[in-house]
Amino acid sequence: GGEARGRGKGSDVMGHPFAALAWLADHLAKRGKSLKKGDIVSTGSVVIATPIGRGEETICAIDGLGEARLLLT
Questions:
Q1: How many helices and strands, by DSSP H and E, does the chain display?
Q2: Which element (helix H / strand E) includes 26?
Q3: What percent of the chain is helix, strand and coil (3-state, nearest 5)?
Q4: Could you read off the pLDDT of 20-55 as tens digits, one per residue?
């Protein structure tokens, strides 16, 4: 409908996204495991998931990366 349904920034994830990554690395190390070269880590979403209905379009824009659009048909 043209209105923003969520906004967030990297610092919403534990103060900085790298803080979440460090937490994960520490958590794994305590269990004798580690991240490996090539591992992909998502630190999570900074906005609440919001359902969309048929005919609605959603846009996710990330500064420096661009945007992704989805139209539910």
A1: 1, 2
A2: helix 17-29
A3: 20, 15, 60
A4: 899 999 999 999 999 999 998 887 778 888 888 899
Structure tokens at 14: 């534990």
Token pair recorded at residue 64: 């420096």
Tokens read off for 11: 């610092």
Q: Quick check: helix, strand or coil at residue 69?
A: strand
3-state secondary structure of 37: coil
Residue that has been written with the tokens 């048909």 in this structure: 73
Q: Token pair 């520490």 is at which residue?
A: 26
Would you say 24 and 35 are in contact if contact means Cβ atoms under 8 Å apart? yes
C-alpha pair distances (Å), 26 with each of 15, 31, 37, 57? 17, 9, 16, 39
